[in-house]
Amino acid sequence: MARVAARLSTDGEQSTHPVDEVLPVPKLALYGFQHVLAFYAGAVIVPIIVGNALKLSPEQLVYLINADLFTCGIASIIQALGIGRIGARLPLIQGVTFTAVSPMIAIGLGAGGGTAALLVIYGAVITAGIATFAFAWLPAKAFRTVMRLFPPVVTGTVITVLGIVLIPVGLNDAAGGLGSPDFGDPKNFAYAGGTMLFILILMKIGKPFLSSISILLGLVVGTTVAFLLGDAKFGDVGNSEWIGITTPFHFGAPKFEWFPIVLMLIVMLITMVETTGDTYAVGDIVGKEVDSETVARALRADGAATALGGVLNSFPYVAFAENVGLVRMTKVKSRFVVVAAGVFMIILGLLPKAAAIVAAVPHGVLGGAATVMFAMVALAGIQTLAKVDLKEEKNALIVGVSLAFALLPATVPVFFTKHMDPDLSSLLNSGVTLGATSAIVLNLIFNGLAEDGAHDVPKVELPAQVAAAADTADTADDADSAAAVPKPSGEGEAARTPAS
């Protein structure tokens, strides 16, 4: 399958499919399944991490994974196919944003963990999704004002903070998972190290298709080795149903609390920047002009998918950069390929046994793969900051102080758990929240609002394995084109903002 997909992906005849072409069903299925492979590990790792942090049961974790995949499929179809003025009609895969992981864990732990925590999270997710959807219908001037809060020094700092805050989550899993009886056992680190080594070898080989699914293959091989050694238990797979339907509010009615809602609104502000960048990136790749209405439609799809995620027991959604890289790498531009991928994800979301297999991945194996992914997120932030003049003392202070604030919850957790109101703690006990807020506020103090046209929408920095694969597939492109660049500012700032 891999050889066939890789061969088709680089075939000259297949590289000319325009964005609106409907391919024959066999090709749609093959290319769509390839998108699912590139996306799958990133899709399921968020519910696994959040579910484990909230101490959910194996059955609840399986349901969470199914709900995520089911909603991912619907969200991707909305984004790629479009419904009225909702959806960019570009080959954009929608997935749960990593930006929300740390804040959701903070909200959940502040609510006491378990399914009660999920209800508070879902209330915040639904509210933030509706707010994002409504925002994308505002006049261009309002959108432009908000985007001026996010010059590259802010977005680069936020993405770096996100990776740095998530790396300890991956390392805790590599140690066996917080609270597990074998936490810190060298055996867990052996599984983590072996999984990381396998992923790095695949990336070193540099074959485009293998590189794009290296995380997924690392999880598969690591879990297989653990199973052969008796450390991966699949008993819950046999106990799971073959078919399972995701129903609205499965865990109960959502709870709407003020501080978690504010926290999730901050998350959605960050994801709006990410989706905007991804929309320009994929538009540049497929050769379709991205105007203000296209960006607005993409953000409306984000908001609708996020609100739907809260209803269907999932989380906030954003366009996945991994799959933007895959579009560039394969040169298959048809948005209907993503529609096919969405259908595959809906089918997977109806198969609890498939989710039970994923839920059985040992903590050590998961931690090894997650650490690599989170480190790549931090690297993407550093690459964005490389475009900022850090010799300018004001910018250096913004980055440095924000990183310090981001490390406060992990360094002095007792300040938040014992000396702060629980509601306030659920908002502030997050490195992402403190780091992002600090970057925005300090940038306003030192630099003020960015001028219109003074900076472009941030480039989309692709994960290292995808960028490497893209370079292998198309060495004629320069390094910067691996993260597709938005249209030059000379084309007008109005083309960068949604119109009412």
TrEMBL record:
Keywords: Cell membrane, Membrane, Transmembrane, Transmembrane helix, Transport. Belongs to the nucleobase:cation symporter-2 (NCS2) (TC 2.A.40) family. This is Xanthine permease. It is found in: Cell membrane. It comes from the Bacteria. Residues 471-500 are annotated as: Disordered. InterPro entries: NCS2 (IPR006043), UacT-like (IPR017588), Xan_ur_permease (IPR006042). The chain crosses the membrane at residues 36-54, 60-83, 90-110, 116-137, 149-169, 189-206, 213-230, 256-273, 336-359, 365-385, 397-416, 428-446. Pfam families: Xan_ur_permease. It is a multi-pass membrane protein.
